[in-house]
Amino acid sequence: MRREGSPFTGLGAVFLKEYADHLGSARMRVLEWLVVLSGIGVVAVAIITLRETVTRDQFLFLNLFLYQREDSAVPSLLSLLSILIPLVAIGLGFDAVNSEFNRRTMSRILAQPIYRDALLLGKFLAGLCTLGTGLTALWLLVVGTGLLTMGVPPSGEEVARSLAFLLVAIAFAGVWLAIAMLFSVIFRSAATSALCALGLWLFLTLVWPILVPVLVPMVATPDPLAARFGLLSDSQVEWYLGLSRVSPASLFADASLAVLQPDPNMTRIPTLGMLGQLQGMVRGAALPLNQSLLLAWPQITALIAAVIVVFAITYVIFQRQEVRA
Amino acid sequence: MAEIVIEARGLRKDYGANAAVAGIDLDIHRGEIFGLLGPNGAGKTTTILMVLGLTESTGGTVSVLGHDPVRDPLAVKRRVGYLPDAVGFYDNLTARENLRYTLRLAGIARAEAERRIEEAMARVRLTEVIDKRVGTYSRGMRQRLGIAEIIAKRAEIAILDEPTSGLDPQATFELLDMIRDLKADGVAVLLSSHLLDRVQSICDRVALFSRGHIALQGTVKELGQQVLGAGHAAHVEADGADIEAKLRTLPGVQRLEREGRGWRITADRDVMADVAQAVVGGGGRLQRLAAAEPSLEKIYARYFEEHQDAA
What we know:
The complex is a heterodimer of chains A (325) and B (311). Chain A has 325 residues and is an all-alpha fold. Chain A has helices at 11-24, 26-52, 63-66, 77-93, 98-102, 106-110, 116-150, 156-186, 190-219, 224-228, 234-244, 248-260, 272-275, 289-320. The longest helix of chain A is centred in the middle third of the chain and has 35 residues, at 116-150. The two termini of chain A are 26 Å apart. Chain B has 311 residues and is of the alpha/beta class. Chain B folds into two domains: 4-223, Rossmann fold (3-Layer(aba) Sandwich), CATH 3.40.50; 231-293, Alpha-Beta Plaits (2-Layer Sandwich). Chain B has helices at 44-52, 73-79, 95-105, 110-123, 139-152, 169-184, 196-200, 220-228, 243-248, 272-281, 296-306, and strands spanning 4-15, 18-29, 33-37, 59-64, 80-83, 157-161, 188-193, 205-210, 213-218, 232-239, 253-259, 262-267, 285-291. Chain A binds chain B through residues 1-5, 9-10, 13-14, 16-17, 21, 103-105, 107-115, 322-324, and chain B through 45-46, 49, 52, 54-55, 70-75, 77-78, 80-84, 86-92, 101-102, 104-107, 146, 149.
């Protein structure tokens, strides 16, 4: 049976209300301060060290995002963000839908002339825009601090690359927001939903990287010749890559590194995931921007696809839910 | 008879093997207050949700203002206001902001919405607290805010699920008053309740639900006749000699029982005038004469006594 009327009726109203709620909420303020303070701290450390050890680097500015001293416990801004973004996204999304049931507003809102589509999509877009706003503010803060303290203006390419990184970060945030909203649809209790989302996040960031090397020999065919040299067989490498890419964090790390590092071989070892994509590259040569983007493209599309798939699952479950609470 | 605004035919909803609503027929007219009465779990809320298109029926048809709530839910919801059982609002927002959000969802232009909010809040006497956060509202105030939402939306049908549950008598009285006001505006009101005596006073017609079926439907008076078997009932109090005998011999009187300080007369026709004449003509003093409305509670209890197997 076809229903009549646009599924987007009321989308704007839901979006604006949720966006305003997010921006005004105490929760968001806490998360913002967390991100800004730790971001500034990390960047300050990077700047202080970078000023001492100024080398002729074509892409000095991008080091703000990547810089990490080998002997220091202070992480780079990139690795800090890969921890903080999921946290903030889960914080915004874990009670998106179930709180409407718990406040008993759901049936009243759905009795207004809107489809459930608008409610879910409006909430998701509002969360994504909130994250986007926060990340853009952080990005501006980092670039501004860099301008003020380093006295070197970024080149056009550096700005373009860091903007691309911003987009990757927003896509990564979208994945976790969608996951958090999925749990908020499945579980009526906000605490259960938050716990499950955080549990999944911890599993994928902490346990999964440990688990992958254990799993690979079980599923992949070993190559006796390669094993004699302590190397992985082709099939093992493929499984290794495939399994590690299940975690959005590894996709995010790969894509960001590809975008932020024009010369992937120079400053740091690329992750194993990138090795295959880097085959045939001339060592020591910086990649032009479009090639870097091409390099990161599979990871970026995978992140966006993950957002869409998780959102679609959420949508189907939400549509089938009974309204009465 | 006024235009039919809600029409259900053979409407049913099955949850697995259980039938929450097992094929009901309903006609609700413009400008009447219709009560869905029955114990909890009898299918009242499910019926309401199907009328609103918030739950899909598993059989039968329902038409609201000429629209199918499943196929064209937006058209239905645009013209129907709903006050759910234990209604919730966004506690961190003020009443004005809450209504502003719902009206924006309903697609009403900003300036018009502001005007309607003021007006509706005045109607439910919440003007003083319009800019207070709803978190500070009492339960009765929330229910009134829900009514204000329906008024502001200019709904043609108001569906109220257990509007008086959990309210103190004063708040109940005020709320029932506001429901009567809705009716005066020409709004069709469909309300559900398990508190029979409270709604009896305001309902034009009622349907008694039992296990997903409508056991009885009609005006309270009709139900009384059907179940209690009495055509007309009156309560009379009078002083004088031999009143009881005189009343008993009046034509049409079927039964005469002592009730309080007077008698309860059951007759097959309206005997009020005859009673008055008989008392006064016999030299007695008529102190009280009133038509005794059959109480819904009595009807309900009697019905289920007689249909033990159904309840």
